[in-house]
Amino acid sequence: MVKLRLKRCGRKQLATYRIVAINVESRREGKALQEVGFYDPMKDQTYLNVPAILHFLEKGAQPTETVHDILEKAGIFKKFQTNL
Questions:
Q1: For residues 61 and 8, what is the distance between their CA atoms, to the nearest angstrom?
Q2: Does domain 2-83 correspond to CATH entry 3.30.1320.10?
Q3: Can you give the pLDDT of all 84 residues of the chain as single tens digits?
């Protein structure tokens, strides 16, 4: 099963995160199938590769709670519903 989850990057006290599609059994910093976005909580910046995210959601990938909130804030689920 594939999940969309955060992968921690950056240094101590200045964490940034990549949003990745990754196998459930992999570690947090494990090898990802594809990087589909970027999230910086300090600057509150988000970059999302929308076509890649929609592709993984259509294939049955499940986002974690945090990634779900980020995607919902960006309006991805509205686009996902119209593509079905």
A1: 20
A2: yes
A3: 899 999 999 999 999 999 999 998 877 677 888 999 999 999 989 999 999 999 999 999 999 999 999 999 988 888 777 665
